[in-house]
Amino acid sequence: MANFNSAYDLTMKAEGGYSNNPADTGGETFKGVSRKNNPGWSGWAIIDAIKATNPPSLNAALNQNNDLLQKIMTFYQVNYWDVNHTSDINDQQMANQVFDTAVNCGTGTAAKFLQEAAGVTVDRMIGSLTLAAVNAADPKTLYNQFIGFRKQYYLDIIARSPSQAQFQHSWFSRLWPYQDPAQSSAQGSAIA
């Protein structure tokens, strides 16, 4: 069973803080939550109130608000983790990648890539058949196929809209290499 907090921590490192880049199709965002796509999210009221105080560092002020941080975490768990039954994926690294893809590309796209990699019918909804195939597959092979689909997705965006090439480095930095758990354990033992 995959752990949400582990996946969340990785994705939040990639998402960063507050941003309002005019070239970003999501528009104003905080930790990846786009106001354009989520105008009714209750965290925007807190963000707007903090912005109105003109703090010396907006990101520092936002990151000091525990209510806001809890709203972010709950938002991601409900809308991007739970919806894809990500807890039911046995391999944590695969779950991390599915979750991060759901956040960055949409839950349906993450489900599609997982289903394509697992060789099951693509319906963009992760259910028991998909999970059975995913958990029976070789984790490293499945993972590498998944990130191959994700990389191509980004390349297709850039081909359709060259202005989005400015985000390529950021997008590709989320294609984390698979770490063999046996090697990680052996290295950890050798270091200790």
Give a summary of the structure in a few sentences:
This protein is mainly alpha-helical and 192 residues long. It has 10 helices and 3 strands, in the order αβββααααααααα.
Q: Class, according to the CATH hierarchy?
A: Mainly Alpha
CATH homolog superfamily: Chitosanase, subunit A, domain 1
Approximate strand percentage: under 5%
Total count of domains:
1
Name the features:
mainly alpha; Chitosanase, subunit A, domain 1; 10 helices; 3 strands
Describe the structure.
- The chain is globular and about 55 Å long.
- It contains ten helices and three strands, in the order αβββααααααααα.
- The chain has 192 residues and is mainly α.
- It has helices at 4-15, 43-52, 58-63, 66-81, 92-105, 107-118, 128-136, 139-160, 168-172, 181-191; strands spanning 18-19, 29-30, 33-34.
- β2 (29-30) and β3 form a beta hairpin.
- A three-stranded antiparallel β-sheet has the order 1-2-3.
- It has one domain (4-178): Chitosanase, subunit A, domain 1.
- It starts with a helix and ends with a helix.
Secondary-structure topology with pairs:
Layout: H1 4-15, E1 18-19, E2 29-30, E3 33-34, H2 43-52, H3 58-63, H4 66-81, H5 92-105, H6 107-118, H7 128-136, H8 139-160, H9 168-172, H10 181-191
Antiparallel strand pairs: 1-2, 2-3
Helix pairs in contact: 1-5, 5-6, 5-8, 6-8
